[in-house]
């Protein structure tokens, strides 16, 4: 999704909305660093869609762990271009202490599932 479409989707939702982000844990990088290395995979407008994606991805690749986070997206954040911290929601795979994750509106829009 393009950033402009993301902004339009937010306006259609009253200017703000919760967005759920699915991060995959890079097992090799995590071993090297000694801490979880997370990579943003997809983002969704609903918690259910994020959970379904993370669960299905974990079922396909049992060695890979998926973590769901959420954040409140709003028009000022999109316009400002700053990164925003997402809050941890749940884990599919081995549960462990996770680092904070941040995303910019552009990063989120690039992996956001379009509303249907």
Describe this structure in words.
By secondary structure, the protein is an alpha+beta fold. It has a 5-stranded antiparallel β-sheet with strand order 2-1-3-4-5. Strand 4 and strand 5 form a beta hairpin. The longest helix is centred in the middle third of the chain and has 14 residues. The protein is globular, with a radius of gyration of 14 Å. The mean pLDDT is 88.
Tally of alpha and pi helices: 5
Beta-strand content: 25-35%
Apparent shape:
globular
State the major sheet.
Answer: 5 strands, antiparallel
User: What's the count of strands?
Assistant: 5
Residue runs with pLDDT of under 50 for 5 or more positions = none
The pLDDT mean sits at 88
Short description:
This protein is α+β, with helices and mostly antiparallel strands. The protein has five helices and five strands; from the N terminus they run αβαβαβαββα. The protein is 38% helix and 33% strand.
Would you spell out the secondary-structure blueprint of this structure?
Blueprint: H1 3-12, E1 16-25, H2 27-33, E2 38-44, H3 47-60, E3 66-74, H4 75-80, E4 84-92, E5 101-103, H5 105-111
Antiparallel strand pairs: 1-2, 1-3, 3-4, 4-5
Keywords summarizing the entry:
116 residues; alpha+beta; 5-stranded antiparallel beta sheet; globular
């Amino acid at each position: 999704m393009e950033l402009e479409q993301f902004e339009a989707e937010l306006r259609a939702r009253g200017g703000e909305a919760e967005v759920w982000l699915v991060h995959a844990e890079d097992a090799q990088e995590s071993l090297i660093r000694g801490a979880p290395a997370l990579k943003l995979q997809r983002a969704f407008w609903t918690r259910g869609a994020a959970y379904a994606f993370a669960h299905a991805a974990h079922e396909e690749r049992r060695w890979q762990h998926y973590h769901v986070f959420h954040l409140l997206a709003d028009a000022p954040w999109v316009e400002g271009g700053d990164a925003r911290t997402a809050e941890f929601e749940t884990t599919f795979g081995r549960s462990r202490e996770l680092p904070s994750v941040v995303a910019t509106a552009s990063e989120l829009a690039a992996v956001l599932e379009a509303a249907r």
